[in-house]
Specification:
Elements: H1 2-29, H2 39-48, H3 50-65, H4 75-90, H5 97-122, H6 130-141, H7 146-176, H8 188-202, E1 216-220, E2 233-236, E3 242-246, E4 249-253, E5 258-260, E6 270-275, E7 281-285, E8 290-294, E9 297-302, E10 313-318, E11 324-328, E12 331-336, E13 342-347, E14 353-358, E15 363-368, E16 373-377, E17 380-382, E18 394-400, E19 403-408, E20 412-419, E21 422-430, E22 437-442, E23 448-452, E24 455-459, E25 465-468, E26 477-482, E27 488-492, E28 496-501, E29 506-507, H9 508-512, E30 518-524, E31 527-532, E32 535-539, E33 546-547, H10 550-554, E34 559-565, E35 571-576, E36 580-586, E37 589-595, E38 606-611, E39 617-621, E40 624-629, E41 632-637, E42 648-654, E43 657-662, E44 667-671, E45 674-679, E46 690-695, E47 702-706, E48 709-713, E49 719-721, E50 730-735, E51 740-745, E52 748-753, H11 754-759, E53 766-768, E54 785-787, E55 790-795, E56 798-803, E57 815-817, E58 820-823, E59 826-829, E60 836-838, E61 844-847, E62 850-852, E63 860-866, E64 873-876, E65 883-886, E66 891-900, E67 907-917, H12 925-985, H13 993-1007, ...
Parallel strand pairs: 60-67
Antiparallel strand pairs: 1-28, 2-3, 3-4, 4-5, 6-7, 7-8, 8-9, 10-11, 11-12, 12-13, 14-15, 15-16, 16-17, 18-19, 19-20, 20-21, 22-23, 23-24, 24-25, 26-27, 27-28, 29-56, 30-31, 31-32, 32-33, 34-35, 35-36, 36-37, 38-39, 39-40, 40-41, 42-43, 43-44, 44-45, 46-47, 47-48, 48-49, 50-51, 51-52, 52-53, ...
């Protein structure tokens, strides 16, 4: 029996746990404002005690906590609830509805207190239930303190939950005890489990001709994030994103980072890529067939199981009828997208497909690995068109409008023109240096790029071509494309990826394959002279080839510091260690004159040269300044004749005077070949180290570049330190007549307006650096050449050419993508067309917009969440990060992202995304009804509790009073009975006379329809009817013989004596009546008043006949009991005289029907003898 009981407890416990878990799942699934996870706990606590209740309460929170993080911490609370319920169940709490509901409130208050503490510490006060959270939000919105809001939100859930759970337990107990449900007790929990399970079941733009050689080249490999180091193919989808197929898998690239799609098992080894007209990306792999992607989502996979001839895919193309052709190692498969993706036809004879191309007239041309060519027309294999030459194996084919380009194995390019399904050979071209041609790519200008194993060439429509300079990136170039911004991308199965990017900055030394620190640039005689630390580098007229002549030979390994062409077209060269050179050109020959110390020069280390208005030349060096005129040194300025610092860094000719900027001695003004003035820190300069002096053609003042900032000298000679300029390590300035000023420094080039500079208020200027395409670093103390708008900048890697009119390329196309939005950590799709619906309980959203920028520019980006942000955030694209927004209120938001042409410029491109957060639950009218309902329930409960408590107190008081009254009555009855027995005791022969009289009287009264209260009153009255005998002497009472007249007179006084005794006795109504009138006779002949008939009180008449009946049927001292027949006869005889006739009839009927048991009465009398 014991084992059987334990077995039942185990089953009950498991069932209770299932009820709790299913209840919680149901509540979560239906979003109920309760937990519903304590019913089983409370039931098992009632049935099996506190221990089982605690175990189930603990376990259900642990098990559910596996799936819901916020649940496990409440396992102790669940256990305590089970123990508490089990304890109070033993106290018979569930025996009363009132005590059951009181227990529920206590459990709710306990749970609320503990949960608020835990949630505040661990979960930012959130209750874990959406209804509770919404109450919290409502309270906070109304200005409640946070702690109070948390308390109220938690209580709303706990109150309803705990009261409902204990009430269900109470009803289950009542059902169990109803009798007809006893057999169902063992299956009750099972039914609840089944209910839970059932519930679970329910629920293009024209552009100018490109100079590709001037494009900046960037190679991408492992270090840049292209992990495999090779690129088999490259494609661009319509959104502008680039896709790179490698042996390591499929990469996407947004201009910032490469991303490997690791979560797609079917694209682990990519051979080829194809983008169809709908923007779908077809990915051909080496061993997994073809995967079709849209926005990184796999739409379909085609492999051998779906009818593909082989999983090794080499080429993909689509014909003009919308049929797709998949070229594999085992042949060609035709694929249709109508009625689902499926293989509709196979061409097994076309094995080892290597390249394919399709035109707009239903033709598809296929080239196999062995160079064999197949033609398809409207999906059927046909003979090659007339005129198509097949004398040599082919490597690549490409349709372009009505042209077909083919590449043979011996690197011939044949161009055919197709007319009426016939082909005409237009051109045959062999390109020097281009071998093993892999593919063709046609541009919008009808140029053809030819990709080969030895490099890339550009074929023009007229048949001319040129090789594209790609540096060392010349091996196994398989494919290429031009992105939407006009940048070139080359993919190599050996070298990786190369981008040729449009830039305003042309790196001239890259064209000649050299790198050098350039100190000075100057154009002369159609050539570009570049002074370096190792001598002169001379570029030809096209600036693409290096020229060597006697000048470069002369200055080999000599540091050239400055180049200048004077008004007589002579080239002046300042060197370090070899003095000054003057070079003149005539009839193709050069005349070179060298000025050294022997000629009177102040040393041989010179930095700068300038020409005065009178044609004289000034040279500044480390040991002074010399003025040259003709072939002589006319004058020298040094420390000996007043020059404060001999080491001169720069010169400026200004009218009839010139200025010398020194290395620590400020500025010296020379006028009329004399030192006219000195300008230093005491005059307002920020430093006495002068790097450059530049005349402002707009204001007429002079900008002074010092070692620690910029200064400005007004036309009247006042010096102003431009302290608000954002950078101090500057080298040079270029000022244009339109007011534009370029400030060159170690940070790059700042673009400013002379008005802003002089005003010295603005602190934010456009900076041109690597983020905007200027990848090189400028050289300090260098002298650049300007030709019109073109600048030849001196940089640490060579000469960089830039146009002052087109220095920034922000006014171009950009594409922006926002494919996903993260809501509380979960990833969702988003697009520009549809409004994204945000759940009302969403707390945090994260946006990761992508600006697909493959250019050298780093444009400014503006991001603004309309409805949340007060103003737009503007930053450089390279600085843009994830955007996080929290606590969005319900409403419609618009996320706006835009590309600007400057920090405060106009919008170049923009995109908008709509986000709508659903109205908070607490703002709905029905939620307010819920809150009112909860508040009403609480009010009703409190009112009921108070009223019930007071009622119980009243009932308890009444109970005590009633019990007290009963005790008083009982005491009265006992007192009366004692008195009656005392009276009866005076006469031993009349024992229990008063008791019998009272019984007879009550029997008669009942026939008269006396009430229960009146019968009781009559009974007590009858008990005391002879109380007056207390005053009668015992001798008279117990006299065996007949009484004398005197004695009888005394005996008759017992009625008056009794009346006197009882007149003040208030316990019994009219008690004295019985004692005073019970000897009155119906005919008026009785004593002591002589009343007759109805004058005699009815109670007295009843007691009188009862008294006479008992006197006749009982033994007396003076005689024995009379025979019953005699008694009956006497009653009849005295009816109407001594007794009330009606009462006589009643008494006789009582005797007749046995109510008065005569036999028992006489038997008792005989025993008493």
């Amino acid at each position: 029996m014991k084992n059987k009981k334990e077995y039942k407890i185990i089953l009950w416990t498991i069932a209770a746990l299932a009820v709790d878990l299913l209840g919680r799942v149901m509540a979560d699934r239906l979003t109920l404002p309760i937990w519903c996870d304590s019913i089983g706990t409370f039931l098992i606590a009632y049935m099996a005690g506190p221990v089982c209740g605690g175990i189930v309460g603990f376990t259900n929170n642990i098990v559910y906590g596996i799936f819901v993080d916020q649940q496990s911490v409440f396992c102790i609370v669940g256990a305590l609830l089970g123990i508490v319920v089990g304890y109070f169940a033993k106290k018979k709490v569930f025996e009363s509805q009132f005590r059951t509901m009181t227990l529920g409130m206590g459990l709710a208050l306990f749970s609320t207190g503990v949960a608020v503490v835990l949630n505040t510490v661990l979960y930012d006060g959130q209750s874990g239930n959406i209804w509770g959270n919404q109450v919290i939000e409502l309270c906070i919105d109304k200005g409640f303190p946070t702690y109070l809001a948390n308390l109220l939100g938690q209580f709303c859930v706990e109150f309803l939950d705990k009261l409902l759970c204990v009430e269900i337990v109470y009803l289950c107990i009542r059902l169990f005890r109803s009798g007809r449900a006893r057999k169902q007790a063992g299956t009750l929990l099972v039914l609840l489990v089944m209910a839970g399970v059932l519930l679970q079941k329910e629920n293009v733009q024209a552009r100018e001709a490109a100079d590709y050689d001037s494009y900046v080249q960037m190679q991408y490999g492992k270090e840049e994030g292209l992990l495999s180091g090779e690129a088999n193919d490259i494609a661009q989808t319509k959104d502008g994103k680039l896709w790179i197929g490698t042996y390591a898998g499929l990469f996407s690239y947004d201009g910032t980072r490469f991303k490997l799609l690791q979560n797609i098992d079917s694209v682990k080894n990519v051979n080829c890529l194809y983008v169809d007209e709908e923007g779908r990306l077809w990915v051909g792999t080496n061993d997994d067939g073809v995967t079709i992607l849209i926005n990184e989502h796999v739409m379909n996979v085609l492999d051998e199981e779906n009818g593909l001839l082989s999983n090794s895919v080499k080429s993909i193309v689509c014909d003009s009828d919308g049929n797709y052709y998949i070229g594999t190692t085992e042949g060609l498969s035709q694929v249709s997208l109508s009625s689902g993706v499926k293989v509709t036809k196979s061409y097994k004879q076309t094995q080892n497909v290597m390249d394919m191309s399709a035109d707009g007239n239903g033709h598809v041309v296929i080239v196999t690995e062995r160079g064999k060519t197949y033609w398809l027309k409207d999906g059927e294999i046909v003979q090659s068109p007339q005129g198509f030459m097949q004398d040599k194996p082919l490597r690549a084919v490409c349709f372009a409008d009505d042209l077909l380009l083919t590449a043979t194995e011996d690197d011939q390019i044949r161009i055919y023109q197709m007319e009426n399904d016939q082909m005409k050979l237009v051109q045959t071209i062999v390109m020097d240096g281009i071998e093993e041609i892999n593919s063709f790519y046609m541009t919008e200008k009808n140029e053809f790029f030819v990709c080969s194993d030895t490099g890339v060439a550009i074929l023009q429509p007229d048949g001319t071509y040129e090789t594209l300079n790609t540096g060392n990136f010349t091996s196994s170039i398989d494919n290429m494309l031009i992105d939407y911004q006009g940048n070139l991308w080359l993919s190599s199965s050996r070298l990786g990826l190369m981008e040729l990017c449009q830039s305003s900055f042309t790196e001239l030394f890259r064209e000649i394959g050299e790198t050098a620190v350039v100190n000075t640039t100057q154009k002369w005689q159609g050539l570009l002279f570049c002074g370096t630390d190792q001598g002169l580098v001379i570029l030809d007229q096209n600036e693409k080839s290096k020229v060597e002549n006697e000048i470069s030979d002369l200055l080999q390994n000599i540091r050239v510091r400055c180049l200048m062409v004077d008004s007589q077209d002579a080239l002046w060269i300042a060197t370090t260690g070899m003095g000054i050179y003057q070079v003149s050109a005539a009839n193709g020959t050069y005349r070179i004159r060298n000025f050294t110390e022997e000629d009177g020069m102040p040393g041989t280390r010179f930095r700068n040269i300038c020409e005065l208005l009178d044609g004289r030349i000034v040279a500044a060096g480390d040991y002074g300044v010399a003025i040259l005129s003709g072939n002589t040194v006319e004058r020298v300025f040094s420390a000996e004749n007043g020059l404060m610092n001999e080491k001169s860094l720069c010169l400026l000719a200004d009218g009839d005077s010139f200025y010398i900027g020194s290395d620590g001695g400020g500025i010296t003004q020379i006028q009329d070949d004399k030192i006219a003035a000195h300008i230093g820190k005491e005059d307002g300069l920020s430093s006495d180290v002068i790097l450059r002096m530049v005349v402002d053609p707009v204001s007429g003042g002079i900008y002074i570049v010092t070692s620690n900032g910029l200064c400005y000298r007004t036309p009247d000679g006042t010096i102003k330190y431009l302290k608000n300029f954002p950078y101090s390590n500057n080298y040079d300035m270029i000022c244009d007549t339109d007011g534009t000023c370029w400030v060159l420094g170690s940070a790059g080039i700042y673009i400013a307006d002379t008005t802003d500079l002089v005003a010295d208020e603005k602190t934010d200027y456009l900076l041109i650096n690597a983020k905007r395409g200027f990848r090189s670093s400028l050289v300090a103390n260098a002298w650049m050449y300007r030709e019109g708008e073109e600048l030849y900048l001196c940089c640490d890697s060579g000469v960089v050419k830039v146009s002052m009119a087109q220095y920034d390329m922000t006014a171009k196309s950009y594409r922006m993508i926002l494919d996903y939005i993260y809501v509380d950590g979960e990833k969702y799709d988003i697009d520009r067309v549809d409004t994204f619906r945000l759940a009302s309980d969403a707390d945090k959203i994260v946006l990761e917009p992508e600006v697909l920028n493959y250019s050298m520019n780093d444009p400014y980006v503006s991001v603004f969440l309309e409805g949340y942000d007060e103003k737009a955030t503007v930053c450089l694209l390279s600085e843009m990060d994830k955007l996080t927004y929290q606590k969005l209120k319900p409403g419609i938001y618009t996320f706006r992202i835009a590309i600007l042409d400057g920090a405060d410029g106009a919008v170049v491109e923009s995109a908008n995304y709509k986000i709508e957060k659903e109205t908070e639950m607490y703002q709905n009218w029905w939620f307010k009804l819920y809150v009112i309902f909860i508040a009403g329930l609480v009010l009703i409960w409190v009112t009921w509790f108070i009223t019930r408590t007071q009622a119980q107190r009243t009932l308890l008081k009444q109970k005590y009073e009633l019990e007290y009254a009963k005790k008083q009555i009982q005491m009265g009855n006992e007192t009366i009975l004692s008195i009656a027995r005392t009276v009866d005791a005076k006469d031993s022969n009349t024992s229990e006379h008063s008791f019998r009289v009272s019984e007879y009287s009550v029997a008669i009264a009942k026939r008269l329809q006396y009430s229960k209260e009146k019968c009781e009153n009559l009974r007590q009255m009858a008990l005391l009817h002879d109380i007056g005998k207390i005053g009668i002497p015992d001798a008279i009472l117990n006299k065996p013989g007949r009484l004398t007249d005197e004695e009888y007179a005394v005996m008759k006084t017992h009625v008056t004596r009794g009346g006197e005794i009882l007149k003040d006795f208030t316990m019994i109504d009219n008690v004295s009546v019985g004692a005073l009138y019970h000897h009155e006779r119906y005919d008026g002949s009785g004593y002591c008043v002589g009343l007759k008939g109805e004058e005699i009180p009815l109670d007295a008449r009843i007691i009188g006949i009862a008294d006479a009946f008992d006197a006749m049927t009982a033994n007396r001292v003076y005689r024995k009991q009379l025979d019953i027949d005699f008694v009956i006869g006497e009653l009849k005889r005295c009816s109407g005289t001594q007794f009330d006739p009606k009462l006589v009839d009643i008494l006789l009927s009582l005797i007749e029907d046995g109510t008065i048991d005569v036999e028992k009465l006489y038997a008792k009398s005989k025993e008493d003898k």
